[in-house]
Amino acid sequence: MEMRRILFAGMVALAAVALSSVARAEVTVIRNATIMSEGAKGTFKGSILVRDGKIAEVGENVQAPAGATIIDASGEWVIPGIIDCHSHIAIDGGVNEGTVSVSSMANIKDVINPEDIAIYRALAGGTTAANILHGSANSIGGQTIVVKLRWGKDAQGMIFEGAVPGIKFALGENPKRAGNPQGGRGGGQQAPARYPATRMGVEDTIREAFNEAVAYKADWDKYDAAVKRGEHPIPPRKDLKLEPLKEVLEGKRFVHAHSYRADEILMLIRIADDYHFKIKTFQHVLEGYKVAEEIAAHGAGGSTFSDWWGYKMEAYDAIPYNAALMTRKGVVSSVNSDDDELIRRLNIEAAKSIKYGGLTREEALALVTINPATQLGVQNRVGSIEAGKDADLVIYDKDPLSEYSKVEKVLIDGNKYFDRDLEVSGRPGKEAEKAKLLAKEKEDAQRAADAQKKQGGAARRPQ
Hints:
Layout: H1 2-20, E1 27-36, E2 43-51, E3 54-59, E4 69-72, E5 77-80, E6 82-87, H2 117-124, E7 127-132, E8 140-148, H3 155-158, E9 166-170, H4 173-177, H5 199-228, H6 243-249, E10 254-259, H7 262-275, E11 281-284, H8 292-298, E12 301-304, H9 322-328, E13 333-335, H10 346-355, H11 361-366, H12 370-375, E14 393-396, E15 407-412, E16 415-419, H13 420-425, H14 427-460
Parallel strand pairs: 1-4, 1-5, 6-7, 9-10, 10-11, 11-12, 12-13
Antiparallel strand pairs: 1-2, 2-3, 5-14, 7-8, 8-9, 14-15, 15-16
Helix pairs in contact: 1-14, 5-6, 5-7
């Protein structure tokens, strides 16, 4: 318990350093930078004016207002904040409610942990926003949440205001694994088997859930229509499992579907067409290149790995050209981390598609900026460096698509949440604070031991 307090105090100290460096001035100018973003302007030398957390102006000649905070980025590069469309960081506890096949009532928003050190480390790699997902143990998993990595804020303060809520679906090996636990079905395994145990069962589970959701929505539609007519009917019973699926049918909640195989991708597209909703993204989608035209025709995006394959049977047909091939077929594509370490290097993951697939530099950068923003429905706020958008910006010392580059500063909503110079210069102070806390813990432990020893001696004296 004492060590947990020490670790928490250390994280608070980190947050204090980060937040003390926040440029609280209402107006900031990043000057003399090489600005890289997708769109007509491409890459150019210029400046960015930030006012009230928004990009007020960007161009080759931007005048700095009187009293503005100036960040001289001569010789440095600026890109939009990197966005990870698939992450499990900042979750308190496990990511799966694996006891049932449909766990749409579970909500990641309820378990956001703003003290997860992975948040700060992701910032140090230039990531400013992430889609935090439920796990893939369920055919229909829990509700997802989009966050900005505002290190030092509480859980509510991290939530990306106005982002469309989502829900996690999963196909293939992971959701059927619970139906085939170690030891086999009925074979003395520790956990009881649950339906589904096959790929066919995964499809059936999703269809049955939407059969229920359609009937549930019909009851509420009938009730709402009666209310509009001035009637006063008894409302239907609210079902927390079906409510998110009703929102999917109404287009108010995005579906992010864990997927690998081409046949199952097509299966879920058929289900979506049958029930008249859209898949927003196929996550992982390692065989997306095989059915890219069908994914594009449906209007879904593809959020994939750059070059992971062979780690399980479903991943054997993965290729490093996947992101580029899907892009060329009209699929809005991104590369994600699914990992609290890789989230720090998504700029390099994006750069791989220049080598594997021949994407342009702007197209490669879009894989971790405007494309995931579009997949999450926040492209009007983030993802590119344009006037009117949130000032979520990353300053690199070198070309951000080079593996030799490192992040110098990170701004979210115009506030500086990471500064490499302050981080490095602040390390001796943090080490001293850590040593002080450890020494105090040792003293407290010794004091408690002495008191216990003294109390034991008193108890042995004759009365």
